[in-house]
Predict the structure.
Amino acid sequence: MLARPEESLGMPAAKPMRRLRLLIPRSFNSDAAVVVSPTIRSFGISWALPRMAADTLLGWWNWPGKLSSSIWNLAPLCLMWCLWRERNGRTFEDMESSDDQLLASFSGTLFDWSRAWGLTSNFNVRSFYNKLRRPLPIIFPWKGVWKVKAPRRVSFFVWTVVWNKILTGDNLRGRGMVFVDWCIMCRGDGETVDHLLLHCSKAHKLWSLVFRSFGISWVLPRTAADTLLGWWNWPGKLSSSIWNLAPLCLMWCLWRERNGRTFEDMESSDDQLLASFSGTLFDWSRAWGLTSSESLPLFLNSLLL
């Protein structure tokens, strides 16, 4: 007979899994993505992980619905536990598992725990492991690129962004060019498409302005494609015209600022960059008839959802 998970971990049966929460790492790194991304994908959903483990668990609970969430709720605890054991094995015992071994360990542990708690009668380790290894299909956010009322050259630029083809430092080095690869915006990391347009500290200030203007909280996904995929018509079809335009305008302004710094040695301050983005979004919205506001302050006040 299979032991209950808390018994196999030496934990009191009266408080199942409670101490396991004390071992949850505070953040995920790129190695953790080897297990995290396939796990989310195996449930057939697209999910952008928050920055903190506490926020992840807060949004995770019973997400598919109360009647079908037992294994879903168990998955993040099992995943974090497996990652913590792997981390300790590498740190204290000099034992390192391959990606496939880590996936297999997680699949088997989740299966054992699910069986022990009576959460499933038809759960199969082999099928679950194969599902974890299945590559994620590419879904192109064509509505967020081509259906937005934006200048055509901007839509074409963002289409290039989604395919990771704009000439950032990593793409230029991939073409054989030799130079010091760094982000000229933040001067702290290498320049990639997603870093420059999403995760750079300068980009973060613009995205924060957008979220504050619309009165929402949002966790940006890892890639521009995922961002646009989840962005389209999020507030509802009748109130999304300017919302859909905002990310294209933001990326365009960041790209122009990056090129100005790179080729013309012209650098805007943070306030100037924020003002340039706000003014551009206002001008585009007026040109396309998306707003009736007569001034920029009135326009920004009208964005609150």
